[in-house]
C-alpha cells in the first residue's frame, strides 16, 4: 500500500517541481563516472586484450553501483524517516517533468518558426548531429527522444521501484546513466563499456516491453501492435525497437530513417505508419508518455491499496 502511495507522491512532486534547479545527483554521478573511467582506462588500450578491457569496465561498474545502491538501501530502511528518503530518491530518479520540458522547448521553437533555436534545443536531448536538420527532422528526433526516454527515464524507473523499492530505482538510473556514457559501440567503449551496456539491456528488457504495451493501449492499438511485431526486430537496439515501433504506430507517425551520428551517416530502418512528424506530434508524444505514467500510478494504487488493507 505504502509503495503505491509513495509513487503517487513522488510523481506529483516531479510534476510540480521538476529537476532540482542547481544540482542533480545524476549530474554528480556522471562526473564520478568520468573520474573512475580516468583511473581505470589504460593509457595504451591497444596493448590490452578484449577480456582485460571488459574486466576493467566491469570493475568500474561494480565500484560505482554497489556502494551507492547500498547507501540508497540504508536511507530507505531507516526507521521512522525511511519513507521520506523513499519518496526523495524516487523523485530524484524520475525524469518525467524534465523530459516534458525539453520536448516542449523544441516544440515551441518550431511553432515560432525559429529552426536554428529548435536545432540547438533538440541537440540537448539527442546524440545525433542537429546542425542541418529540417523542421521535419527536428520533430522526428524529438518524438523519438520522447518515446525512448519515456521508457528509460520514466517507465523503467517506476518498474524497478515497484520491484525493488527506492534502491531498485536508484540502481536502474545509475546503470542507465553509465550506459549513456560507456555504452557506445566505438573504439573506446566497445569493450570497456561492455558490462554497462549488457546490464542496461537486461534491466530494460521487461520495462521496454511494458512501455511498448502502454503506448499501444493508449493510441492506435492495432497499428502499434503491428509495428511492434513487424518492425521492432529490424531496429539495432533490442529494447528501443519495441518502444519506438509501438510508439510510432500508436501516434500514426513515421520515425527512423537516416541520421548523422558523430560525423557518420547511419542508415536506420523506418518505424511506424503514417505521416512525417510535425511540431504538433511532439505534443502528442508528450501526452502519450504522461497518460502512460498516470496509468501506471493508478494501476499501482488499484492493486496496492486493496492488498494493503487485506494484509493489515
UniProtKB/TrEMBL annotation:
Domain of life: Bacteria
Keywords assigned by UniProt, alphabetized: Cell membrane, Cobalamin biosynthesis, Membrane, Transmembrane, Transmembrane helix
Location, primary (coarse class): membrane
Pfam families tied to this protein: CobD_Cbib
Membrane topology of the entry: Multi-pass membrane protein
Record localization: Cell membrane
Pathway: Cofactor biosynthesis; adenosylcobalamin biosynthesis
Parts of the chain that traverse the membrane: 55-75, 153-175, 293-311
Family: Belongs to the CobD/CbiB family.
Protein's name in the database: Cobalamin biosynthesis protein CobD
Amino acid at each position: 500500500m505504502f509503495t503505491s502511495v509513495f509513487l503517487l507522491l513522488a510523481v506529483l512532486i516531479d510534476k510540480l517541481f521538476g529537476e532540482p534547479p542547481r544540482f542533480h545527483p545524476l549530474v554528480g554521478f556522471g562526473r564520478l563516472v568520468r573520474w573512475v573511467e580516468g583511473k581505470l582506462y589504460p593509457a595504451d588500450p591497444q596493448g590490452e586484450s578484449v577480456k582485460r578491457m571488459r574486466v576493467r569496465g566491469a570493475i568500474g561498474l561494480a565500484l560505482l553501483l554497489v556502494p551507492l545502491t547500498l547507501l540508497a538501501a540504508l536511507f530507505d530502511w531507516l526507521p521512522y524517516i525511511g519513507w521520506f528518503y523513499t519518496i526523495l530518491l524516487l523523485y530524484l530518479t524520475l525524469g518525467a517533468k524534465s523530459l516534458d520540458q525539453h520536448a516542449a522547448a523544441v516544440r515551441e521553437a518550431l511553432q515560432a518558426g525559429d529552426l536554428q533555436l529548435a536545432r540547438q534545443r533538440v541537440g540537448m536531448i539527442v546524440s545525433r548531429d542537429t546542425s542541418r536538420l529540417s523542421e521535419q527532422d527536428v520533430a522526428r528526433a524529438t518524438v523519438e527522444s520522447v518515446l525512448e526516454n519515456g521508457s528509460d527515464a520514466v517507465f523503467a524507473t517506476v518498474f524497478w521501484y515497484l520491484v525493488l523499492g527506492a534502491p531498485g530505482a536508484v540502481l536502474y538510473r545509475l546503470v542507465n546513466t553509465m550506459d549513456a556514457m560507456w555504452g557506445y559501440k566505438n573504439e573506446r567503449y566497445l569493450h570497456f563499456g561492455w558490462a554497462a551496456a549488457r546490464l542496461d539491456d537486461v534491466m530494460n528488457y521487461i520495462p521496454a516491453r511494458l512501455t511498448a504495451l502502454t503506448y499501444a493501449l493508449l493510441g492506435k492499438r492495432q497499428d502499434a501492435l503491428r509495428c511492434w511485431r513487424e518492425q521492432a526486430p529490424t531496429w539495432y537496439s533490442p529494447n528501443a525497437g519495441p518502444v519506438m515501433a509501438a510508439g510510432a504506430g500508436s501516434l500514426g507517425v513515421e520515425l527512423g530513417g537516416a541520421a548523422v551520428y558523430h560525423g557518420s551517416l547511419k542508415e536506420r530502418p523506418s518505424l511506424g505508419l503514417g505521416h512525417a512528424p510535425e511540431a504538433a506530434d511532439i505534443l502528442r508524444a508528450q501526452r502519450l508518455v504522461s497518460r502512460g505514467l498516470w496509468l501506471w500510478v493508478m494501476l499501482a494504487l488499484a492493486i496496492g491499496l486493496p492488498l494493503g488493507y487485506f494484509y493489515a
